[in-house]
Design brief:
The structure is a homodimer of 397-residue chains. Chain A is of the alpha/beta class. Chain A has twelve helices and 15 strands.
């Protein structure tokens, strides 16, 4: 624990925002920092949750402990909806209370004696959970990295896909695509190379596809679209950014039966043991919501939610492009990655907050490779996003 | 992982039940095994959850990520309801998706280099999570114990309270009262000794009070009723057995600001970092249910739920007593601990299942000290409990 640097990124940003609001109590602060959904959940979905809640007061509708792995019907529906034709089955799906929580349970599965690689920059929960598990060495302030972690640098120069010829072998590779924070998505060809790399090295890929539905290009939405991936990868995902479930809490992890440890033992079997010991299943009410999400009507509603945030993304991209910035991401993810070459991310973050009352996220919070960037999230009300665009234009005109 | 013995106890029982039902497809199987609530949740509480679900479809009522530590109002309400006058405050409360999940997050906090003690017998998640974290040695089949764990034997002879003079010092002491599985509750005097023991040894007590509302005697419902406990103990609890929330998922952990690691660092600060990294808060809908539970009307409804199961408990206690068994527990907990001296718990479990179609829990599943006992859970519909009583009377007449 003592190795951890400062606070987890997002609570740290929340603290700074709170301090700012104390300093400027009348300011209209706009939050494009934490990727927190802002739009109401479609009624079709909340009605299903309300119905399940009411049913819990009836003898027939009451349910107590469910399977730790999730309700059978929901597992089957996730498999057929998101992995149709890919050979992923109901039993490969583990329903959870969210991808972040599952990442931590996966770390528990891997234990403290593994080595891991992450994209640099990447979602901080991978590294932080690794530090907490004791997998890493000390934080090295000169390079802003933890010892024993392989940082796979992702920059505009390499198209945000790491040069695998320079990546050392590790036991586990965390890989997020569409990526948080850069908003970039790996192509079929790139992911094929990643799968081959993992196969050659006997590594397990933890593929985070929480933004898959934001993909507009023809890139894979799941790692399992890549031949051979089932033998080297598991995948984690979530309803958070599709249905506005950040507060409801529902996600899933796919562990194909083909994925084995080096001794031949199925990874899914051990993970099942982990969830039985360290978890008690997602809320039955949230699971009812998940089932509603995966009906034709729910899927349509989710696509509308995603579409709304995609429009926001475009507004932000256009704004920064019009101001002459180099802008990345945005096409396949609700995140816009703006370059401020030579500047400190936290300085840029602070200047934007101070002068425009807009909360963004400093790129360096995602790893040393994020230095000089800020991430602008597209999760916000339309009026706020338009107002933010106006303020950015005033600041950088 | 490889050290773990067989399956986690309760999924193992579920498997055996399923096999039994396959063998006797027409049998009316009664489940008094897993302590899973069966009675509908009072409408007052589910209505509050349904209302919150509907509100998530409105601009004003929508909420995304909440504080990982739980909603302010719920934290305050838990503090004032269950810890009124004990000096526990809102910030000491961490709302969670259940006690089992929190136990695992606590293990993550403690890390792999700690020693721990458990009551023997005790709820298996303590030991299993410890094994997964790598805190223990190998399982020693001769004594049915893991190396590096201090098993504090609790038997009828010592009133189910360990002889602390024979207990070695450990970093962490898991202690559950009212106890699962023995149903016994520690007295004020016993807990005072436990607190003094922990203070002397510089140990942290993880006190599990998930059955506190089942207490009928004048024993403490919280460890914080014991003077000095705030410097040596944290406490975990849950709405599961009070409101039938086993499927809804809502619990909490109390970490007093007075509880410090040996270097003076507040335990709560590190746990806050753990929940921020490994958790994303309990479902907002479940939290709305928790708030409803803690209104006067909700408290009354919970007391009725608890009262119903207490009546079940009495039926089970009376049944086994009338059959001449030595019966423990039941007064302060929804579990009845029945002695079958000289017999194997799993044999008794199997005989009962085979001959009466009743699922119980073999005592040895809770540790070697549980050998020769079975746990009968009082969670069941009244008709089922009465029918079970009849079958037990036929079997053992």
């Amino acid at each position: 624990m003592a190795k951890l640097q400062a606070g987890y990124l997002f609570p740290e940003i929340a603290r700074r925002r709170a301090a700012h609001m104390l300093k400027y109590p009348d300011a209209n602060v706009i939050r494009l920092g934490i990727g927190d959904t802002t739009e109401p959940i479609p009624e079709f979905i909340t009605s299903a949750m309300a119905k399940r809640a009411h049913e819990l007061s009836t003898l027939e509708g009451y349910s107590g402990y469910g399977a730790e792995q999730g309700e059978k019907q929901l597992r089957a529906k996730i498999a057929s909806t998101y992995y149709g034709g890919l050979g992923i089955e109901e039993n490969d799906i583990f329903v959870s209370d969210g991808a972040k929580c599952d990442i931590s349970r996966l770390q528990l599965l891997f234990g403290s004696n593994v080595t891991m690689a992450v994209q640099d920059p990447s979602y901080p929960a991978y590294v932080d959970s690794s530090v907490i598990m004791g997998q890493t060495g000390q934080f090295q302030t000169d390079v802003e990295k933890y010892g024993n972690i392989e940082y796979m640098r992702c920059t505009p120069e390499n198209g945000f896909f790491p040069d695998l010829s320079k990546v050392s072998r590790t036991d586990v590779i965390f890989f997020c695509s569409p990526n948080n924070p850069t908003g970039s998505a790996a192509t079929r060809e790139q992911l094929t190379r990643l799968v081959q790399f993992a196969k050659k090295n006997g590594s397990i890929i933890v593929y985070d596809s929480a933004y898959g539905m934001y993909m507009t290009d023809d890139n894979p939405r799941s790692i399992f679209e890549i031949p051979g991936a089932k033998e080297v990868a598991l995948e984690t995902s979530s309803f958070s950014k599709y249905a506005g479930f950040t507060g409801v809490r529902l996600g899933w992890t796919v562990i194909p039966k083909e994925l084995l440890f080096s001794d031949g033992f199925p990874v899914a079997k051990d993970f099942s043991r982990i969830v039985c010991t360290a978890f008690n299943g997602a809320s039955n009410i949230a699971q009812a919501g998940g089932l509603a999400c995966l009906t034709p009507e729910g899927l349509k509603a989710m696509r509308e939610v995603v579409g709304f945030y995609q429009e926001n993304t475009q507004i932000i991209v256009d704004t920064f492009k019009s101001l002459g910035f180099n802008v990345y991401g945005g096409t396949n993810a609700p995140y816009v990655w703006v370059h401020f070459p030579g500047q400190s991310s936290w300085d840029v973050f602070s200047e934007i907050l101070e002068k425009t009352h807009i909360v963004t996220t400093p790129g360096s919070g995602f790893g040393p490779g994020g230095e000089g960037f800020i991430r602008v999230s597209a999760f916000g009300h339309r009026d706020d996003v338009l107002e933010a665009a106006k303020r950015f234009k005033q600041l950088y005109k």
